[in-house]
UniProtKB/TrEMBL annotation, chain A:
It comes from the Bacteria. The keyword Nucleotide-binding does not apply. The lineage of its organism: Bacteria, Bacillati, Actinomycetota, Actinomycetes, Streptosporangiales. The keyword Transcription regulation applies. InterPro entries: RNA_pol_sigma-70-like, RNA_pol_sigma-70_dom, RNA_pol_sigma70_r2, RNA_pol_sigma70_r4, RNA_pol_sigma_r2, RNA_pol_sigma_r3/r4-like, WH-like_DNA-bd_sf. This is Sigma-70 family RNA polymerase sigma factor. Keywords: DNA-binding, Sigma factor, Transcription, Transcription regulation. Residues 1-26 are annotated as: Disordered. Gene3D superfamilies: 1.10.1740.10, Winged helix-like DNA-binding domain superfamily/Winged helix DNA-binding domain.
UniProtKB/TrEMBL annotation, chain B:
SUPFAM superfamilies: ISP domain. The keyword Protein transport does not apply. It comes from Actinoallomurus vinaceus. This is Rieske (2Fe-2S) protein. Keywords: 2Fe-2S, Iron, Iron-sulfur, Metal-binding. Residues 115-211 form the Rieske domain.
């Protein structure tokens, strides 16, 4: 289950000096333009929402932030800009909208949008594969019970009561287990990221 | 610890999480909780009602003013290609305006700053002026001979907000002071001289013109 680690390390680091290979699919569409703001919206709203959801993990915030991106970005955009340009602008807007969200709510940037990394995926059809694989990698590094409680609660929508029953422990124990599992998993990620910062 | 638990519980229940005082260790756990929650199968697609509703909001005339201004095709394409290059990972072309203006407060240098996106690079052809409002700072960016400039949009006399006049000057509505796009004072009818407009660091990154403003 460790496939995800070598996969990430093959990519150039965030501070790589040399320009990366032209891996961005934006090149494929550089000559195309949108026919109007509605086309811009319909083509990108799902992408922006998905991106925001991956950064905040809840629907109300993801919806608000997505709306903010389009409400502030569509006005200065001219549709004669290329598809790549429009997307770059939406991404830049999304990045500052997300940063402002964290400043406003928790006072520090919990997650951030790495424009270069995201841009490489932005033009592609969505694939659940990579983040699912990453998460599977993190979970695989945990002791069995920790892994299971996180799986049940985060990935399979179990309530704490259902998860406790499934694990054969009391609700109180399940809560403690979940909390410790989250802390431990965060540590696993932190250690792994001394050379590769997550989501940054 | 309680705050973190409640935040995570909100994430799991799909509610809007409430803020709490975050410690460093919390931040890592939060980041992970968000990632795990976002990996739940099928949960990252927007609701159709949301997509339709936002579509309607955007269609309201106040929200999207569609008045395309003519732009030379050549310039648009040039900008587009440059933008794509930048997105591919070759950042950052910083251009701070030169020193031909009279002494002023110089370049704005906030203690803690961030790059604020102003306009798609393709939408700022040579000779164009674009106003921006970055919260703490308002101003104007221009492209002149391929070079980007950004200046504060606030009159150095009494703080009135400037507007573009004739596409190439900045006029103060309060006492009619007139500034050049590089911030220099062109004329005024005030008893004492006024400084030039502070300049801002400006760059083009990822196909977007950005200015450096306070992050507070």
């Amino acid at each position: 289950m460790n496939r995800w680690i070598p996969g990430r390390r093959e990519r150039p680091g965030p501070d790589a000096e040399t320009p990366p290979e032209p891996r961005t699919p934006l090149r494929l569409v550089e000559g195309e333009t949108y026919t109007g703001w509605e086309a811009i919206y319909l083509d990108n709203v799902h992408r922006i929402y998905r991106l925001m959801f991956s950064k905040v993990g809840n629907r109300p915030d993801a919806e608000d932030l997505t709306a903010e991106v389009f409400l502030s970005a569509l006005r200065p955009l001219r549709t004669s800009a290329s598809v790549g340009e429009v997307r770059a602008y939406l991404l830049a807007t999304a990045r500052s909208v997300l940063a402002a969200h964290w400043r406003r709510t928790l006072g520090q940037e919990i997650t951030a949008i790495d424009i270069e990394r995201v841009a490489a995926d932005f033009g592609r059809p969505p694939e659940a594969g990579r983040s699912a694989e990453r998460v599977a990698g993190i979970l695989a590094a945990l002791p069995d019970r920790y892994r299971r409680v996180l799986e049940l609660r985060f990935l399979r929508s179990y309530t704490i009561r259902e998860a406790a029953r499934e694990l054969g422990v009391s609700v109180g124990n399940a809560k403690v287990l979940q909390h410790r599992a989250l802390r431990l998993a965060a540590e696993v990620v932190r250690e792994d990221h001394s050379d590769d910062r997550m989501g940054r | 610890m309680k705050g973190l638990r409640r935040y995570v519980e909100d994430l799991l229940k799909g509610r809007r999480p409430r803020s709490f005082p975050v410690e460093e260790a919390d931040a890592d756990a939060l980041r992970l909780a968000i990632e795990l929650r976002a990996a739940r199968p099928g949960s990252d697609a927007p609701r159709e009602e949301f997509v339709a509703d936002l579509h309607r909001r955007l269609a309201e005339p106040d929200n999207v003013a569609r008045a395309p201004m003519p732009v030379g095709r050549r310039l648009v394409l040039g900008g587009a290609l440059a933008g794509v290059g930048a997105v591919a990972g070759v950042t950052i072309d910083r251009a701070i305006t030169g020193g031909e203006t009279p002494p002023s407060d110089g370049t704005m240098t906030p203690d803690s700053g961030r790059w604020h996106p102003v306009v798609a690079a393709a939408d700022l052809p040579d000779g164009a002026v674009h106003s921006f409002d970055a919260g703490s700072t308002t101003g104007f960016v221009t492209r002149d001979g391929g070079r980007l400039r950004a200046v504060s949009g606030v009159c150095t006399h009494q703080g009135c907000r400037l507007h573009v006049e004739g596409g190439a000057r900045l006029r103060c509505p309060c006492h009619q002071a007139l500034f050049a796009l590089n911030g220099a004072v062109l004329h005024h009818r005030l008893p004492a001289p006024i400084p030039a407009l502070p300049r801002l660091a400006v760059r083009e990154a990822g196909g977007v013109v950005q200015v450096y403003v306070s992050s507070a």
